[in-house]
Amino acid sequence: MNKKLLLTVLLGAGLAGSAQAAEIVVNADIATSTTWTKNNTYNLAQQIYVMPGATLTIEAGTVIASSPTPNGSGSLAITAGAQIFVLGTEAEPVIFTSTTDVNTWINGNPKTGTYRQAANEWGNLTIMGRGYVAENATPGNTATPNAANVATMEGLTAQFPGDTRVLYGGGDDEDDSGTIRYASIRYAGRVLGLGNELNGLSLGGIGRGTDIEFVEIMNNVDDGIEIWGGTVNLKNFAIWNVGDDSLDIDQGWRGKAQFGLIVQGYSVGAAQGSGIGDNAFEIDGAEQSDWQPVTTTSVYNLTLIGQPISGDHGVAYRDGARLQLRNSIIMDMGEQALRLDNVDGDGGAGYGFGGTVSWADTWTTAFNAAPAHPNDPAPGLVGWAGYPAQVDGFLNDVRDTVFFNNNNGSAYTVANSVGVFDVANNNLIAANSPVRYVGRGPAVNPFGSLVMQPVVKLDPRATNDAVSSVGQAPNDGFFTPAPYRGAFDATTNWLKGWSAADAYGFFTADAAVQVRTSPLNVPNSISAVGLPTFGNSSFAIQLNDPALACVAPGQLALLIADFGGPLNLPFPGFGCGGGFGALLIAPTALQITLPPQVFAGAPVNFGLPIPNTPPSLSGLQVNTQGVFVNLSTFTTTFTQALDFTFGT
Prior knowledge:
The protein is mainly beta and 648 residues long. It has a 17-stranded parallel beta sheet that branches. The longest helix has 6 residues.
């Protein structure tokens, strides 16, 4: 009788690195068109301006890494009349960060970085354009849209009388400030003074000729992205662990946005608004609410994930803002899902001031039926794009949106008061999570009595009620019709491969199986049935070659596995009589002990079918190959190899 021994070996996979680039210190304004290349890193030594008429082009794969100083002085500002082209790709994003971050990369490879609870290590990226803005604080500005109306960019200071480098605004809603594509902005937000910090990405008066897509802000000390006026559109953006509002709108923005992920948390231990997250989405109409332009926008496919204990609101409305929020997810908010702040605290007078539309009426007034107002733009105003973002519905509405786990007692008070949950709007309060997985770390007190539960693992893809929607965005040349709710469909996480969130390991892994063969292997000898996803009751390793099977009672079969920790031996499954064939197809669970940093507790039953194991194990990579030894003839047969990645 032939006796065969099966040996299955599981080994971890590694990561490849890349070479370090040479450093160039940037210590002067850019007055002539310049290209930054990926064979260098660029260290911003101070506040750098790209001057009017000049273009800064940044190649894919380029790293801009500034040295931390007591006030994070290195910063980049694109003046009105200049352009920037950040030409990152999914394979090679452009990264704006600090040298401290780069020092965590293995062999200079940004995909190997280590996350740190930090910010304020450099300044930010500021872009200023010539679109119309509504700013009443600038002397000489008018309440009616005017090409002469300008504003001073937050966080920038004029160095001499008449210093126009710090100004944005004008009379060209089609203005083109360039392109930002596949850009990761990390650990930014220079602190200038109490309550005066830089945002991750500041956009002032940007026209809709500018393209911004696939942009990420990670760990900023102030707002993630703030937009003042203009008509710029945003697509595929992520804002994670910022210290104030994640997305902040001011001064009459009239652009559109789609596919945005917001994960609320904190960047540094400071007051809420200066290190600990405030509102997920804060939207102001104009600095004075009867001025124009007034923020009038349509936003589709946002996923807003808040802080359930000391977090703030999902969407906060101020000073006449008009927002159509559709096909979105609002979950885990510590306070109200929708909140009427009414005024911004900076002197604005709120909804209904000076003959403007009242708060209640914005929810029942058609997008194209706002009453005439003395501050309406002059007929035929040169360079004025109007209010192009809204094409149906009401000035304020929420449609096709899922609300989940917003447990504050008044979470839906405002939403109910304006009919958000009327049947016609197709909104719902879900019983089950609309995203696949949100894993939080232990509760911490980063400042005072505020309690944060940071998101440490996330699979933002749609599930349950978010997988499909009734309506979807129009096919208008900017929006992408997407028949689901939230920023991600059920299958694809578009942040993977290029973002800091991916590099730092915040995302759960996609399950995968790869087959490897060589001339020594028995072709098609073993295979996987399904994918190794946690909770999958049908996944199995299938033995395909009858010649390798254990068919007679008494033959010995042994499965040895190493998942990175010691095995508790012996375990069941010895011998054909004990079900060796079944062991391959649906084996008894192996009892293993995992390292404490992977799973706090031991042992864990881990076998096939795969149990609903904690998603902290997501991404476990193993390499499997069967080796059959005939104990009578001492011949050896190798199966093909299967490489598994366990995922959600």
